[in-house]
TrEMBL record:
Membrane protein topology class: Multi-pass membrane protein
The protein's name: Solute carrier family 15 member 2
Record function comment: Proton-coupled amino-acid transporter that transports oligopeptides of 2 to 4 amino acids with a preference for dipeptides. Transports neutral and anionic dipeptides with a proton to peptide stoichiometry of 2:1 or 3:1. In kidney, involved in the absorption of circulating di- and tripeptides from the glomerular filtrate. Can also transport beta-lactam antibiotics, such as the aminocephalosporin cefadroxil, and other antiviral and anticancer drugs. Transports the dipeptide-like aminopeptidase inhibitor bestatin. Also able to transport carnosine.
Family: Belongs to the major facilitator superfamily. Proton-dependent oligopeptide transporter (POT/PTR) (TC 2.A.17) family.
Keywords noted in UniProt: Cell membrane, Cytoplasmic vesicle, Glycoprotein, Immunity, Innate immunity, Membrane, Peptide transport, Phosphoprotein, Protein transport, Symport, Transmembrane, Transmembrane helix, Transport
Gene3D superfamilies, per the entry: MFS general substrate transporter like domains
Compartment(s): Apical cell membrane; Cytoplasmic vesicle, Phagosome membrane; Membrane
Keyword set includes Nucleotidyltransferase: no
GO cellular component entries: apical plasma membrane; phagocytic vesicle membrane
A matching Pfam family: PTR2
Lineage: Eukaryota, Metazoa, Chordata, Craniata, Vertebrata
Reactions the enzyme catalyzes: glycyl-L-glutamate(out) + 3 H(+)(out) = glycyl-L-glutamate(in) + 3 H(+)(in); N-acetyl-D-muramoyl-L-alanyl-D-isoglutamine(out) + 3 H(+)(out) = N-acetyl-D-muramoyl-L-alanyl-D-isoglutamine(in) + 3 H(+)(in); an L-amino acid tripeptide(out) + 2 H(+)(out) = an L-amino acid tripeptide(in) + 2 H(+)(in); a dipeptide(out) + 2 H(+)(out) = a dipeptide(in) + 2 H(+)(in)
Organism: Rhinolophus ferrumequinum (Greater horseshoe bat)
Keyword Glycosyltransferase: no
Known partners and oligomeric status: Interacts (via extracellular domain region) with trypsin.
């Protein structure tokens, strides 16, 4: 018996989702099938979408490639601040897709968001592009071409990484190899990706007439939120033991919302629950552009056949993705299948997490090795001191009334290269040192002030027939981008202007003037042009190696003209940047198994009305992952290798949790949702009697 009679009161149990009457649509003629690519089942419109994605990703990843170093070396922020801002930007880029998905599904549709919002406003446009472009490409396929649609996601991911590959290699070259405005040309490095965004817009617009444009289906985000809220509140109101329990907590929304929406929300919440552990994977993967790049700045980029900039190591990721996607699809997955193993999407994602854990364990080992080979740093109430004798004969240097006097007891020959700095203890944060200099039959007493945690060079110079000294502070961390740093002491009686390949020459004052450090590209410098007010000459600086800092003393003590005496303030970086290759191989394999699979999994599990919402939720996990890195960088206080170990261990724990959740997850195909809804609706109707609901208008 139907409890809802025709002449019943206007107090009812139902409130329609929309008060607007939808007029019946007249029958339409069969549509002409869309044009295909070379007789295949792939729509021609896919070509425009993939090319557009290539250009857009070129722009995005090209800008990201130099972003961390821009913060560090151009804006002079600390490593932790640069890392935090980098990941804050990434996080914002992945949070905005929620807004973009809501607009796409409820108002404009995927096509208009992608072209008008996404490509017109880059700052907020990434929120319009990310949740729409993958799903928009999936919409171009007919239902009978599911295999081609699954392969489309691999091709789509290939286009992403092809754009990333080229831009990550070219953009650092535009920054480092081109000089503008007196330094690295960041303007060009950011300008070229901007131009590619214009090209992306043009290409996408060219295919407009070929696209299959799914119309928006109403404000789906609002409907989902209201449906969930009504189910929770309705269940709370009807918590009496006399009321029959329902199979699912969302069934308590049946009094107000249609069965199809409830089933869609059920499918959505099941997947969103599965997404909870995913941000930790992205927290590791996204550090390639921040922590891994900063690690590369302390490694030697000279591979013999090519010299790599630190940020160019990121090119390994898209390059390996282009290799691994067909390798995994056509070889590895098929071999696993022939072995009788059911390698489901969720199992692939779990294995991807384990590989990412291993990658960060390797990163930690490399970091420890770099620290072992790095020059020591002065600690609390300590300084490092080297004595450079620029006089024409040996000098004996002793320290008066100090326990450190034995460190400088031996005589120092003229222009003797010191093997290393000497460590001096201060007992306070700053101190005045008294030095006794013996030169021939002369004794000279000098006093110099120093502060803890610094390096200093004590320069001894001729002063007529006597000698004098000057204390020069050696700046720490002067080398940047895997480059080298140089400074000069000019013993000539005239100012010298030195051309080092940059726009502005380096000026060094006369009579033992000391220049600031200047960073230059590594390599051989056999003839550096120099000028005084009445003479031109060249200096042979020799090889300037990766990460080293050099002091050059310009002298004119021979008949061959001015010469440069060279000594190392900071030794060159010995560990090769090639040691980062294993970690990139592991993390890229992890990305292919996790991210490519996740894209296809998200689309296949999404109800038809919520595909962009679920895509945005997938991207939202990336935003949360970036936020995790931001929080750890700002508040952990760990040394870098320990931070890498922390991330590896956290992901291992999360992988265990995800594996348990995946074990109990039962995949549901979207086309089966309506069938499930038809089976469950009689059950819902039987349990809707005698409930406490609000008075609503029919």
């Amino acid at each position: 018996m139907n409890p809802f009679r025709k002449n019943e009161s206007k107090e009812t149990f139902f409130l329609p989702v929309s008060t607007e009457e939808v007029p019946p649509r007249p029958p339409s003629l069969p549509k002409k099938p869309p044009p295909k690519i070379c007789g295949s089942n792939y729509p021609l419109s896919i070509a425009f979408i993939v090319v557009n994605e290539f250009c857009e990703r070129f722009s995005y990843y090209g800008m990201k490639a130099v972003l961390t170093l821009y913060f560090l070396y151009f804006l002079h922020w600390t490593e932790d601040t640069s890392t935090s801002v980098y990941h804050a930007f990434n996080s914002l880029c992945y949070f905005t897709p929620i807004l973009g998905a809501a607009i796409a599904d409820s108002w404009l549709g995927k096509f208009k968001v992608l072209s008008l919002v996404g490509l017109s406003l880059i700052a907020l446009g990434t929120g319009g592009i990310k949740p729409c472009v993958a799903a928009f490409g999936g919409d171009q396929f007919e239902q009978k071409h599911e295999e081609e649609r699954a392969r489309y996601f691999s091709v789509f991911y290939l286009s992403i990484n092809a754009g990333s590959l080229i831009s990550t290699f070219i953009t650092p070259m535009l920054r480092g190899d081109v000089q503008c405005f007196g330094g690295d040309c960041y303007a060009l490095a950011f300008g070229v990706p901007g131009l590619l965004m214009v090209i992306a817009l043009v290409v996408f617009a060219m295919g407009s007439k070929m696209y299959k444009k799914t119309p928006p289906e109403g404000n789906i985000v609002t409907q989902v939120v209201k449906c969930i809220w009504f189910a929770v509140s309705n269940r709370f109101k009807n918590r009496s033991g006399d009321i029959t329990k329902r199979e699912h907590w969302l069934d308590w929304a049946a009094e107000k919302y249609p069965k199809r929406l409830i089933m869609d929300v059920k499918a959505l919440t099941r997947i969103l629950f599965l997404y909870i552990p995913l941000p930790m994977f992205w927290a590791l993967l996204e550090q390639q552009g921040s922590r891994w790049t900063l690690q590369a700045t302390r490694m030697n980029g000279n591979l013999g056949f090519i010299v790599l900039q630190p940020e160019q190591m990121q090119v390994l990721n898209p390059l390996l993705v282009l290799i691994f996607i067909p390798l995994f699809d056509l070889v590895i997955y098929r071999l696993v299948s022939k072995c009788g193993i059911n390698f489901t999407s969720l199992r692939k994602m779990a294995v991807g997490m384990i590989l990412a854990c291993l990658a960060f364990a390797v990163v930690a080992v490399v970091e420890i090795k770099i620290n072992e080979m790095a020059p020591p740093q002065p600690g609390h109430q300590e300084i490092f001191l080297q004595v450079l004798n620029l006089a024409d004969d040996e000098v004996e240097v002793t320290m008066q009334g100090d326990e450190n006097n034995s460190l400088l007891a031996e005589s120092i020959k003229s222009f003797q290269k010191m093997p290393h700095y000497s460590k001096l203890h201060l007992k306070t944060e700053s101190k005045d040192f008294h030095f006794h200099l013996k030169y021939h039959n002369l004794s000279v007493y000098t006093e110099h002030s120093v502060e803890e945690k610094n390096r200093y060079s004590l320069l001894i110079r001729e002063d007529g027939k006597s000698i004098s000294s000057m204390m020069v502070k050696d700046t720490e961390n002067v080398t940047t981008n895997g480059m080298t740093a140089v400074r000069f002491v000019n013993t000539l009686s005239k100012e010298v202007n030195i051309s080092l390949g940059t726009n502005l020459p380096l000026s060094v004052g006369e009579d033992y003037g000391v220049s600031a450090y200047r960073t230059v590209q590594t390599g051989e410098y056999p003839a550096v042009q120099c000028k005084t007010e009445d003479d031109d000459f060249s200096l042979n600086l020799g090889l300037l190696d990766f990460g080293a800092a050099y002091l050059f003393v310009i002298t004119n003590s021979t008949n061959q003209g001015p010469q440069a005496w060279k000594t190392e303030d900071i030794p060159a970086t010995k560990i090769s940047i090639a040691w980062q290759l294993p970690q990139y191989v592991l993390v890229t394999a992890a990305e292919v198994m996790f991210s490519v699979t996740g894209l296809e999994f998200s689309y296949s599990q999404a109800p038809s009305s919520m595909k962009s919402v679920l895509q945005a939720a997938w991207l939202l996990t990336i935003g949360v992952g970036n936020f995790i890195v931001l929080a750890v960088a700002q508040f952990s206080g760990l040394v870098q290798w320990a931070e890498f170990i922390l991330f590896s261990c956290l992901l291992l724990v999360v992988c265990l949790v995800f594996s348990i959740m995946a074990y109990y997850y039962v995949p549901v195909k979207p086309e089966n949702i309506q069938e499930l809804a038809d089976k469950q609706i009689p059950y819902m109707q039987r349990n809707m009697i005698n409930l406490k609901t609000k008075n609503t208008k029919l």
